Amino acid sequence: MWQCCSSNDDVVVNTIEKEQTSDEDIVEERGGPKKNPNECSDVGERTPSTKELSTNDQNYNEKKFKEDFKELIYGYQDCVGGFVDMSRPRDASYASKTELQFSRRGKLKILKKKRLGNDVIGLFSYRKFSLSSNRTMPTEVRGITLRQLRAIIPLIKRRCKKENWTRPVYKDGVETDEVERVTLENATLYDINEYITKPFTKYSQKSFVETLPSTKGTQPPRWFVSHYWGETIVHTMECLEQMVEDFTRNFYYKEDDERGGGMTEDTPVWICAFANNQHDLKSEITSNPADSAFAKAMSIANFRVISILDVNNQVYSRLWCMYELYLTLILSKEQDMNGLLAIYTYHEHGVEEYLSPSYLSKTMQKSAVGLVDGQPTNISYGYYESLNHFPKERFFKSLSISIQDTKASRDDDRKHILNALVGRRGDDMELEPLKDHENYETINNAVRGAMTCLHFAASDDRKNGYWDEILHAMKHSLTQSSIEFHNYLDGFKAEDVVDLFHNLPIGLEQHRISNCPHGRVAMDAFLDWLENTLTNLKKLYIFGTCIGGEVGGKECGERLARFLARDVCKIDGLILHETDLVGSRNVDTWIECLEKNQSLKYVKFRGMVNFVKYVGESELPNTSINVPLGDDSGSGMASDRQKKHIIHMQSFQQY
Length: 655
What we know:
Blueprint: H1 23-27, E1 44-45, H2 55-59, H3 62-68, H4 70-73, E2 75-77, E3 83-85, E4 92-101, E5 107-116, E6 135-136, H5 146-150, H6 152-159, E7 166-171, E8 174-181, H7 189-201, H8 208-211, E9 223-226, H9 233-246, H10 254-258, E10 269-270, H11 272-275, H12 293-300, E11 304-309, H13 319-334, E12 340-355, E13 360-372, H14 383-387, H15 392-396, H16 411-421, H17 438-457, H18 467-475, E14 482-485, H19 494-502, E15 510-514, H20 519-532, E16 539-543, H21 552-564, E17 573-577, H22 587-596, E18 602-606, E19 624-628, H23 640-647
Parallel strand pairs: 9-10, 9-11, 11-12, 14-15, 15-16, 16-17, 17-18
Antiparallel strand pairs: 1-6, 2-3, 4-5, 7-8, 12-13, 18-19
Helix pairs in contact: 12-13, 13-17, 17-18, 19-20, 20-21, 21-22, 22-23
InterPro entries: LRR_dom_sf
Region (Disordered): 18-59
């Protein structure tokens, strides 16, 4: 069950200690300082529909309003009984630097924060219970923080049963006269919009985010949340809590920061239901979806997308959600940005956690699991075990995804999005969309390919009746830039691994093979793909994978080396770690081929140690070399003499 703060005490996600508040502080209402015309250059002016509250509004029971929404206006209790103050404006931020605290069982300590956004003065005054300013924030910078989202749960819990919240029952998509109760367990964004968002923002006539007293100013999103409104808020919150935990780490590595690391409870994510002004949706809608707040918010988030996969797999039947995947999988690459897709779903499961220094284990309960293109920045204990619990049947339903068959709540949205995807503009945006187009198929292949590549990160079985569809979807993905087989190939049969390697994505740019136990059969299949595909592969990492036999490692290593010498090779980074692909029997071939290579910028080789038995030796050195080819900027190549000197170092296993 969802709690107000993360139940995993092994990762610290709080960036700011709780403020000590007195009773007077808690009931103080937000008025806001005087307006500074020099602040917030990205905030525009908007004239509300009414600058003064109407007579009916003035007669409204202000006390009842504040009681109804006290969790949003004043605060709420967290999972350990502490009070979370929502009455004061709070900076949006993320952790720009973290470090491990080994004395505290691997907890993360936040060393440095970076503020996000600018101040916006006087969005709504709860002291005067009126609009104190007609200023508004651009929709795309109305992200919402985990601290703010958590307030919704206790509000629903307190009011839904007491006030007998209900909603219509739908059968086959048609509303009936029947109604059902809304509970904390089944409340969706549709219910929240009806019972919380619209009533809470009625007097401000602004978005939910702008109306919250805890919003200090613009909250540019670090991640974009793609979701189905029919998913329950409890499941959505579990996914977001797990995602924040998975992306807490930011070790000041460029990659951690670029991948969205440093997430905290004060880091904004963009959710349309809370960013859009529900009283003025017309102003939020554009005829060209590329100009929409959705597209702008995703660009601000550097096309980092967390897709909430609901238990009924409805999210990918929604056109807007598919369009959002198009933005991160295709458009981001067209703009020379590397979008990042993370798919999280609600699923209760337990994983074994090993406690140091005793290394005793305990079962840690989790309520959500996420698959990330590559991996999250914070790989905690039990992460890979958790992946094995991902409910793969939800994935298999995505193999039949077709964007032209998805649904939109507004028919205008359907026309505009599909027409935009095939290149129509202007008045043509109002035409009935084409039923088929090559651009549709490109998007379908990209989405299916991304799904299947992520599936293999969690797969411990193969067939499931979808094997051929999985291979076809993976092979025809032009946009899937990376795929990593970590420790999962040991569960595959050798012939299945051959199928996998022969059908790697056409657009693959980074590939990692770890602990593959299938020897030459698997490596020959990978080399077949490498030699016969017009590949853009740039990074190749092979770890703990020995070919074995008297000549297996020698011959496969020579095949790889000769590919590196070809003009079509684009590999600029190569790491071979604990593998027999390089050794005394083929070192001359490696020297010759490295001298001919024109693409490599760095090479790293390491010795054997744990894999001696595959080559029949009793002892091999555990030595390593790092070979930076070129200067720090990555340009230029090392001289032939330098290469020969490095390659002849006594660092290769002698076998």
